[in-house]
Design a protein that fits this description.
Rossmann fold, 11 helices, alpha/beta, 7-stranded mixed beta sheet
């Protein structure tokens, strides 16, 4: 299938997930390999840049927070082992996917002496902490917060991930160009900025392209257990493809309930679907054939991807999802920008902030995510890189392009 068009992500960085339980705690140490709920920081030899981030390291959204923390940790370990001028000390704080706790976690990192930031992993925490990054002149590059509200009006908050609206535009284009469905139905989450932003842009682009959207149905956090009504609406509309701009937990229930009622359309998701193969109790055979757009393919054969996947599997005993790869790329992008700008660890956060604001829009970064054309940013913090079309086959992601 032909290579999908590169597109510029005009918004910002937030993922809105279901609320998580659990208390706060800092990330694991670089040498322990322990779970994120244990305290400690990763240390570097000699002077190091203090790099901090918040994310859900416990609770139902922890798959995303742990993936980001672990991907960043591997990059930090590699860079520190090289013994060059750029060294990092990494500290993650658990924000339990809660904005108030995220602000507390951010303030703990600030007290620790954070000089540069990985922002927050999920949407509402990302919106909350990015305002503090801006007010405190602490530069942030988030791996996974994708809402436009995260970077809007904040010239020192950048994204590594795709923005929500452009995922909707890109998905409509991909489905249309690849002729994946004749009648499309959308199931989306109305109390979620992530899902709403993607859905709105998908509908607008579908109309432009002449893609036949035969209906849509919504749900909320409180109703995210029974999708019988939505699935019956889709079935009655004759939909042969369901577009799911939602997260993997609700998607796993939709797949299970569709199977139970004998309804077997194609399913197409976005980056929040990454992780569906890890849901406890989910029959992963039901995910066979599920398609999604993602910036990362763990099965890619290039040396950089294979080295990262092996390191991740050796350290954490599982295959990394895209959030881990995006966080890994964040750390290496920081390394490149810091080197380019001539930064040193003795600089203040505000000094680094000014240097990085001037430097990031000038560099092209080649990482695990995107494609060989490289990753770039504009002065708003929006990223430009290409997605990859993936399909789940035999329990693994396989490239469609």
């Amino acid at each position: 299938m032909k290579k999908f068009l590169a597109f510029t992500m005009a918004a910002a960085l937030t993922l809105s997930l279901a609320a998580c339980g659990g208390g706060s705690g800092s990330g694991s140490s670089a040498t322990s390999g322990s779970d994120a709920s244990s305290s400690g920081t990763s240390t570097a030899s000699g002077a190091a840049f203090k790099l901090g981030g918040t994310g859900p390291l416990t609770g139902s959204a922890s798959i995303y927070g742990l993936a980001a923390q672990r991907g960043a940790q591997i990059a930090v370990d590699e860079i520190n082992a090289q013994g060059g001028d750029i060294q990092f000390e990494l500290k993650y704080e658990d924000d339990v996917n809660d904005p108030e706790k995220a602000v507390n976690a951010y303030n703990a990192l600030k007290s620790w002496g954070m000089q540069i930031s990985l922002g927050s992993v999920t949407t509402q925490p990302g919106i909350a902490t990015s305002s503090y990054n801006f007010a405190d002149s602490i530069f942030a590059l988030t791996p996974s917060a994708s809402s436009p509200d995260v970077i809007s009006g904040k010239d020192n908050v950048y994204q590594m991930c795709f923005s929500d609206p452009n995922q909707g535009t890109a998905s409509a284009k991909y489905i249309s160009e690849q002729k994946l469905g004749e009648k499309v139905f959308i199931i989306w989450k109305s109390d979620d900025n992530y899902s709403t932003g993607i859905k709105d842009k998908f509908v607008a682009e579908a109309e432009t392209l002449g893609l036949n959207v035969v209906g849509n149905a919504t749900f909320t956090t409180d109703s995210a257990t029974d999708f019988t009504v939505q699935l019956n609406q889709a079935k009655q509309a004759g939909a042969d493809l369901l577009f799911l701009p939602i997260y993997y937990d609700a998607a796993s229930l939709i797949l299970t309930q569709a199977n139970a009622m004998g309804y077997a359309p194609k399913f197409f998701g976005v980056d929040g679907m990454d992780g569906i193969l890890t849901v406890d109790g989910f029959d992963t055979s039901l995910a066979e054939g599920v398609m999604l757009l993602t910036p990362f393919n763990a099965d890619a054969q290039d040396e950089a991807t294979q080295n990262f996947v092996k390191a991740y599997q050796d350290k954490y005993g599982e295959t990394p999802i895209q959030f881990a790869a995006d966080a890994y790329d964040c750390v290496y992008a920081y390394k490149q920008a810091l080197e380019t700008a001539g930064c040193t660890p003795d600089m203040s956060a505000s000094e680094l902030n000014e240097k990085l604001k001037a430097t990031f829009p000038t560099i092209t970064f080649n990482g695990l995510t995107g494609d060989g054309a490289g990753i770039t940013w504009d002065a708003t913090g929006a990223v430009s890189k290409s997605p990859k079309g993936m399909v789940i086959q035999n329990g693994a992601y396989v490239g469609m392009d």
